[in-house]
Amino acid sequence: MLCFCYDLICSCFSKLHGKAQMSGEKREHLYKILVIGELGTGKTSIIKRYVHQFFSQHYRATIGVDFALKVLNWDPATIIRLQLWDIAGQERFGNMTRVYYKEAVGAFIVFDVTRASTFDAVVKWKQDLDSKVQMADGSPIPCVLLANKCDQQKEGMVNNPSKMDEYCKEKGFTGWFETSAKENVNIEEAARALVSKILLNDKLLHGNDTKDPTKIALDNNGKAGGEATSGKSCAC
């Protein structure tokens, strides 16, 4: 039953991801985004803030994977749906993450600026990500590093922005942002940076190909801005 629950969500995403309709004026991109990192770094808080503009000090640890949907009016002709997958920190680098990562086109790796040990684990999360999911041309998917809880006292390299820039370039990150889910700092900006990179990659890979499976045409009655839904899948 648990596996069926997870498989059903994956099946629904795959059907939407592969569907293409050319009637109508607006076009839609559906992108699966992973949010990964050590336990307690604030992944769920970041998603809640981004999708629902909500913050709470009290969240239970994610078990398996949660997901939420954020709908963006990117421009007058483009609607973007982001399916954000909140991967439990305790999943670590197990075999199940390969299933969770399937069809993702971008990722956030989150660490807690108040705990240097969570930054030390970032490289392992990045290596695990790159080994389990790639773009169509075999290159790594875009990944943005989030230095979360920046409203609190910071530890380690995050206190030196130039070294952080070098680190991200060396490790293959698209970029990095200091974020705070509590104070709503840089979360929108980080998401926009990641989506911009995904769109650029999409254009480079598909050009103006109208058969691009990540694009779905909407009719003039299609709803967009401000819509947000959430759900939860089950770990096997």
UniProtKB/TrEMBL annotation:
- Membrane topology value: Lipid-anchor
Superkingdom field = Eukaryota
- InterPro entries on file: P-loop_NTPase, Rab29/Rab38/Rab32, Small_GTP-bd, Small_GTPase
Q: Gene3D superfamilies in the record, alphabetically? A: P-loop containing nucleotide triphosphate hydrolases
The UniProt keywords, alphabetically, are: GTP-binding, Lipoprotein, Membrane, Nucleotide-binding, Prenylation
Question: Any idea which GO molecular function terms this record carries?
Answer: GTP binding; GTPase activity
GO BP, one example? Answer: endosome to lysosome transport
Segments carrying the region annotation (Disordered) are 211-236
Q: What is its main location?
A: membrane
Q: Where in the cell is it found?
A: Membrane
Q: Does the keyword Hydrolase apply?
A: no
| GO cellular component labels | late endosome; lysosome; membrane; phagocytic vesicle; trans-Golgi network
- PANTHER family xref list: RAB FAMILY, RAS-RELATED PROTEIN RAB
Q: Which family does it belong to?
A: Belongs to the small GTPase superfamily. Rab family.
Q: What is the annotated role of this protein in its UniProt record?
A: The small GTPases Rab are key regulators in vesicle trafficking.
What's the name of the protein?
Ras-related protein Rab
User: What is the protein's species of origin?
Assistant: Thrips palmi (Melon thrips)
Organism taxonomic ancestry: Eukaryota, Metazoa, Ecdysozoa, Arthropoda, Hexapoda
Gene for this chain: LOC117652162
